[in-house]
Amino acid sequence: MSATKIGFTLQPLDEVLKQAELPETGSLVERVYQLLREKIINLSLSPEVPLPEKEIAAILNVSKTPVREALIRLANDRLVNIVPKSGSYVSAISVDRYLEACFIRVQLEGGCVRRLAEKGLSMAEEVHLRSLVSQQKQLLEDASGQYEDFFLADEAFHKTLFQYAGLPGAWTLLNGAQAEIDRVRHLKIRQGILRSRAVIEEHTKIIQAIVDRSPDSAEAVMVYHIGSVDDQMLSMSENPQFLQTIESFNLLLTAQSKGRSKIQ
């Protein structure tokens, strides 16, 4: 079976960052970190792309120090490789890191909704969660809407569950761990692999299980929604072309990056 062809062209670093704006809140290091992280996760900054401190600082109109510190944080997230005497590069997508992140996500999100079902929701919390699902429905029905908006609404739903469960620190931990999941999700989007309607139905079932004060049901629905590590491994084994897509994507961007560096 031949690998899936990927229609993707490497964007120059300045084009990616000049089109973006630093977040308005947080320290300068945090703002640079969040911007670079977002662009890496949505694949605007692709595997093996060089991330020179001086160039990034010039584009963002900041000093090199916050850029350096942001890159160190991204390296801790395993989204960036810092090579001594060479520089910093966006990490390749890793299936092993993806499956590890799936394991972490199942444990944390399953435990979150179990605790929330035991604790219960206030009427205002239930209304807010249902409004987030309604927002996703509207984005799905809007033909002109971008999937990035749907992705952000999905993230807001899961973050809110942790807030209502009184576990904001667990969300911070999960958000750092699941970066590889999000990169794979964006790669699937580029391949036209979407399950938006199923996501909305599952979010609705999660809310109902919490409202019904059924911890077992809430956890079971969440695990089904996310997909256990075994489910993810089975899915990949049944779709070897997607594994080939990940490998081809990493190799394609590496080749394009090397070709561009020779031209420069």
Automatic annotation (TrEMBL):
Annotated keywords: DNA-binding, Transcription, Transcription regulation
Residue stretches making up the HTH gntR-type domain: 26-93
SUPFAM superfamilies reported in the protein's UniProt record: GntR ligand-binding domain-like (SSF48008), Winged helix' DNA-binding domain (SSF46785)
Superkingdom of origin organism: Bacteria
CDD domains named among the record's database cross-references: WHTH_GntR
One term of GO molecular function: DNA binding
InterPro entries tied to this protein: GntR_C, TF_FadR/GntR_C, Tscrpt_reg_HTH_GntR, WH-like_DNA-bd_sf, WH_DNA-bd_sf
UniProt-recorded name of the protein: DNA-binding GntR family transcriptional regulator
Organism: Reinekea marinisedimentorum
